[in-house]
Design a protein that fits this description.
The protein has 462 residues and is α/β, with parallel strands linked by helices. Helix content is 34%, strand content 21%.
């Protein structure tokens, strides 16, 4: 992290120094007191069910020399420890991150969308890193706390920054884009994630487009042209922004043709400057073709050679629990996509499973959370998709996911091949009996709150 004086932190955050020395410098900012090392800065963050301010003494015992707090727990401060009191710790973190970002002259590629943000971020970053020293969001630390913490990792060696932006309600992307000020803004799609909070896909579009509020002059917007709302938006705004499109169906600047899928990879042709190239992606599924087209778009904007772009795509690695292929017990193959789920990503994963050949197929599907009043309808739609795909057995877990099972049966799936489990333990017991008898591909997918990693741990080959 760049060197910032306590005095500058006070200026940026409008904070008050309760003890310590304003001429000292901030250490690495850490929000978990258990992870503090000597010289670090501890920031106490309050959430709905916890208050990080109360752990500041633990942080000091572990070596913190500065604490940023938004609530005074007590008044016993050591004179050699910098205690900064701010109005809101999260806002203070964001203001410090904005100050740091403004001190670096580098291109920021910001990515948002309803689904596919993390995998798109990973593949874009791998393409860019073939040419430039690149910092990217770790995992999916893409929110009001995670994004600023990524910015804290900037230093003079980095030439490009690839940032993922998540949101659950209106105004959150606006705060994040103010920090990063992107040169390239990527919108992967507009789906139904967080529709329970925002009320409609049109409102989700408006919230995602907050990313453009701080787009730099002569910046570029890259969109998935096959997404209905983004396609319409691009037509309506073609004279307002520099827009680059990618797609498979609608005519786009970068298009995939002659697509081929197998268990572990995808291939397609793309025409760049009137020359056709064959692209190899080390992950199966149509959605990774889209991600790769997006990465090609970014690479071309940054004048990265096509050979380096191809290498970046061919060698990229997925963040764990995102379409991760794992060897399972009894010679089964697990598709671990249990980090998160919404209608669009669930649909894509099921369609990917249906195209696999060589083994029978099991879909283990759990609740998709944060869908509000649309929850029942969207779970039923998933059940309809399952019934139309080549899935041999379906196991659902959770109250809402029961709608998937019921609708799959109504759609024609044999009832004897559909199982409903009330919890993960039951699902594991059902799976263990089934997979002994044959070889299977097993898709495991649900929202992170369903803790489907428990299922993965029980059926993977140790």
């Amino acid at each position: 992290m760049m060197k910032i004086s306590i005095d500058k932190v006070l200026e940026v955050t409008k904070g008050k120094l309760l003890s310590g020395n304003k001429n000292d410098f901030l250490g690495d900012i850490i929000k978990d007191s258990r992870e503090i090392k000597k010289g670090d800065t501890y920031i106490g963050i309050r959430g709905e069910n916890f208050d990080g301010n109360i752990f500041y003494k633990d942080a000091i015992r572990n070596g913190a020399t500065t604490c940023i707090l938004d609530r005074v727990v007590d008044s016993e401060f050591a004179n050699n420890i910098n205690i900064i009191l701010v109005e809101d710790s999260i806002e203070a973190l964001q203001k410090i991150a904005e100050y740091i970002r403004d001190n670096y002259n580098l291109d920021v590629i910001a990515i948002t969308g309803s689904v596919g943000k993390t995998s798109t971020k990973d593949i874009i970053a791998n393409v860019i890193s073939q040419e430039y020293s690149t910092l990217k969001t770790q995992g999916n630390l893409n929110g009001q706390i995670g994004l600023p913490l990524t910015i804290m990792r900037l230093n003079d060696k980095y030439e490009k920054l690839v940032i993922e932006m998540g949101m659950s309600k209106k105004g959150e992307i606006s705060k994040l884009t103010k920090i990063v000020k992107p040169k390239i803004a990527v919108i992967t799609n507009i789906g139904t994630s967080h529709i329970g909070n925002l009320g409609s896909r049109e409102n989700i579009l408006k919230a995602k487009m907050e990313i453009l509020e701080q787009l730099q002059e002569e910046g570029t917007v890259i969109i998935n042209n096959d997404n209905d709302l983004l396609h319409k938006w691009a037509i309506e705004n073609k004279y307002k922004y520099n827009i680059i499109t990618y797609g498979i169906k609608n005519e786009s600047d970068y298009m995939a043709k002659n697509i081929k899928f197998d268990e572990y990879s995808s291939e397609f042709d793309v025409v760049i400057n009137n020359v056709k190239y064959r692209i190899i992606v080390p992950v199966g599924g149509e959605h990774f073709v889209y991600n790769s087209l997006c990465a090609i778009s970014v690479g071309c904007i940054l004048n990265i050679s096509i050979e380096k772009i191809k290498k970046g795509i061919r060698e990229f690695e997925l963040t764990k629990r995102r379409m991760e292929i794992i060897d399972g017990k009894y010679n089964c193959t697990i598709i671990n996509d249990c980090y998160n789920a919404n209608y669009d990503s669930m649909k894509a994963a099921i369609e990917y499973l249906s195209r696999l050949k060589g083994k029978r197929k099991i879909a283990v599907l759990g609740d998709m959370l944060e869908l509000g009043e649309y929850s029942q309808e969207l779970h039923k739609r998933i059940g309809d998709i399952v019934s139309k795909c080549n899935i041999d057995k379906l196991i659902t877990v959770g109250t809402e996911a029961k709608n998937i099972a019921d609708t799959a049966v109504l759609g024609g799936m044999n009832k004897s091949n559909v199982y409903y489990a009330s919890n993960n333990k039951e699902a594991i017991e059902i799976l263990d009996k089934i997979i002994k008898d044959d070889e299977y591909f097993i898709l495991v997918k649900a929202s992170n709150g369903m803790k489907f990693n428990q299922i993965i741990d029980e059926i993977k080959n140790d």
